[in-house]
Structure formats: structure tokens, C-alpha cells
Amino acid sequence: MVKDQEVERIAKKLDKMVQKKNTDGAIDLLRELKNIKMSLETLQSTRIGMSVNAVRKQSSDEEVQTLAKSLIKAWKKLLDGAEGKVAAVEEKKKSASPLQCSSKDSPSSSDSKKSEPPKTPTSPSTPTTPTTPTTPKFTSFPPAPVTTDSVRTKSRELLVAALQIGDDHKTIGADCDHLAAQIEDYILLSLKSKWESYRPFQSWSISGLNVQN
């Protein structure tokens, strides 16, 4: 409290010098300020920095200007240091906020991890044994075209007889009657535009089948 009063007394004297535009004796007052250990509260309550800066600007004495600058510089460091401490405290408060806490430390996250059921390891699927392909069996055919022509009927009979030679038709399950009718009908369709040449062709086919039989 005494220090504040002393600094305030010096500040008033300096302000009067500035008003009278006479800075004689200012150097002695500045030396007194240099020997006083200044605090942030004293600087703010007495506003001594403004008084010293006003004297510095008005005085033409180099010693007064140099000492005034030195005091102002030292006080400015004190102010900057105090502001830095305040900023550090604010930053520390923000970093310690619950909203900034890591989710790893929250009990709810640990509980949720504990409540998760254990995963059952899945066994690799058993490879299937490849099956041997079987011989396809022909069990059905398109319906055989009906004919009343005696030559065509005879041709079909001979074709049936030829298809039944050996056991191949049994192995594949072929219906020789239907197959013979399909073969004969295909020959007819191939020579439809030449019907007259069909009968000689049939006679040749029949004779050939007879020879094989």
C-alpha cells in the first residue's frame, strides 16, 4: 500500500511537469522509480507508465529519455509475462475440459467392450469331392411325325432295325422308333422340293440297310 502511494506521488509530479512543459528534476523521479520493485497491480492502479512515457516525449534530456525508455521496457515485460500466464491458465482449463477427454478412458466405452459377446471362430468349409460325370441318357424325344405312306413306313422300320444293331441304343437309353422316325422325316424335308427323287433315294437307303442286315 505504501509503495502504491509513493508511485502515485511520483506520477502526479511527472504529470505536473508535462503540464508546465518543464521537465527539470524528472531524472531524480525516474531514478526513484527504478529503485522501486514494481508489481502488476501497482502499474495498473497508478498508471505510472503513461506519466513516464509523457515525460519521455516532452523532455529533450537524453538521460531522461534513456531512463524512461528503460523503465517502460521493463514494465512492458512484466505486463506481457502476466498476460502469458493468464493465457496458459486458460489453455490448461480448456485441455482439462471433460469434452476433451479421450473416449478410451470413459467408463461407458469400456463397459460396451466388455458386453460384446465373444466371436465364435468359423471353421473352414470342407471341400466337396468332385463327382465323376455320368453318361447322359436320352429318355425323351420330340413326337415322331405320323405317316401313312407305305414307302416311308418301310424306311422307318429298316432304320429301327439298323439302330438296334449292337447295344449302343441300350447304353444311352435311346428310343429307336422315335429316332428312326426323326431321321426319316429329316431326309424327307431335305428333299421336299424333289419329291420324285425321294423314292429312289429311299429305295437306295433300304437296299443299303438290307445289305447290312
Automatic annotation (TrEMBL):
InterPro entries: TF_IIS-typ (IPR035100), TFIIS/CRSP70_N_sub (IPR003617), TFIIS/LEDGF_dom_sf (IPR035441), TFIIS_cen_dom (IPR003618), TFIIS_cen_dom_sf (IPR036575), TFIIS_N (IPR017923). CDD domains: TFIIS_I. The keyword Nucleus applies. It comes from the Eukaryota. Residues 151-213 form the TFIIS central domain. GO terms for cellular component: nucleus. It holds the Pfam family Med26. Residues 5-82 form the TFIIS N-terminal domain. Residues 122-141 have a biased composition (Low complexity). Its main location: nucleus. It is found in: Nucleus. Keywords: Nucleus. Residues 90-151 are annotated as: Disordered. The keyword Aminoacyl-tRNA synthetase does not apply. This is Transcription elongation factor A (SII), 2. The lineage of its organism: Eukaryota, Metazoa, Chordata, Craniata, Vertebrata.
